[in-house]
Design a protein that fits this description.
By secondary structure, the chain is mainly alpha-helical. The chain contains 15 helices and three strands.
């Protein structure tokens, strides 16, 4: 396949690609996406994030936009080729281009999946993106990973910090807000490490979240303002109270649930909350409730409980975000 990749690109740009050639290109992209996902997110045999989607489905979802016809009447991959920063003159340059584009698409899909599963990750990610826009930073995609760098940086041209080394950075660096947070980490990378001053964005989100769930910051100085604004543990307490109130004051009061059912559903959400703290929901709503109601079958679940639990799950996510936003605005 790699031998004729440049020919496929040429035919694609000239709108001469036949169905067989298009299928070859799709399969090539699928292979890239699948290999990348397995290497980066499933290298230990288990997902580094608690995905409830297969590697194959992640790969398909990632490359699909590249082959959908857009407003210009051409598939997305053509636009990507036209916007590429240099000419594609041979199969090696074509392969390099395609790897970069597919890796980038995979990362976008992964982030979308994580945000849907984990509202706290989504909120922190959104805050960091706002920080990048408002201050003197920008985001650069480097071999599939999104990095935060100083706005003057045009490209990453040195060794970047690994996830393992990033986890070893002093906790006090992460106890600041917005500009001070990013700027402090970049300065530390320049003055105290051999790494290029670039912050892996997703790893930063994970570190911020994990730091405050652990409750163990060692001997580092704690910034009270930061703790106040990222009071995630209390966010879950708040959201679970809302769930319990809804169950008691609406579903049980109006005979949509009995007391035993209400208790089982609430206990299910306490388990869901614990798993959300650690990356996201690991099981289906049926499986959570089945742990509390062992005789429950799927038919009865979807008939009597699915609609209620799905609403409460969305309500849980809304209340988590509401709590964090209200705290952040104070």
């Amino acid at each position: 396949m790699g031998e004729n990749l440049h020919t496929l690109f040429f035919n694609l740009q000239k709108d001469k690609l036949n169905r067989s050639e298009l299928n070859q290109l799709i399969q090539y992209c699928l292979n890239i996406a699948t290999s990348y996902i397995i290497f980066k997110y499933f290298s230990s045999g288990e997902s580094k994030f608690n995905f409830d989607i297969s590697v194959q489905d992640l790969a398909v979802d990632s490359i699909a936009p590249l082959f959908i016809i857009n407003g210009t009447g051409k598939i997305g991959l053509v636009n990507s080729i036209n916007n590429w920063h240099s000419d594609i003159n041979d199969r090696h340059e074509a392969a390099f281009f395609l790897n970069k584009i597919v890796w980038n698409r995979v990362e976008q899909t992964i982030i979308k999946v994580i945000k849907q599963k984990d509202p706290i990750f989504a909120k922190i990610h959104k805050n960091l993106s706002t920080c990048v826009l408002n201050y003197n930073f920008k985001k650069i995609n480097y071999f599939g990973t999104l990095y935060i760098v100083n706005n003057k940086i045009e490209r990453i041209c040195g060794k970047v910090i690994s996830n393992e080394e990033f986890e070893k950075l002093p906790a006090h660096l992460f106890l600041k807000k917005q500009f001070e947070l990013c700027n402090g980490i970049l300065i530390y990378l320049i003055n105290n490490t051999v790494f290029f001053p670039a912050i892996p964005m997703n790893q930063l989100v994970k570190r911020l979240k994990a730091l405050h769930f652990s409750g163990n910051l060692g001997n580092d100085i704690v910034n009270n303002e930061f703790e106040h604004n990222f009071d995630i543990e209390n966010a879950f307490v708040f959201a679970l109270e809302k769930i319990n109130n809804k169950i008691q004051s609406f579903y049980i009061k109006h005979n949509k649930l009995n007391e035993a059912d209400g208790t089982a559903i609430y206990k299910s959400f306490t388990v869901i909350s614990e798993e959300m703290k650690n990356g996201g929901i690991n099981s289906s709503l049926y499986e959570y409730l089945n742990e509390q109601m062992h005789e429950l079958n799927k038919k009865d679940f979807y008939k009597n409980y699915h609609g209620i639990m799905n609403y409460l799950l969305n309500d849980l996510k809304r209340n988590l975000i509401k709590f964090v936003e209200e705290k952040s605005s104070k």
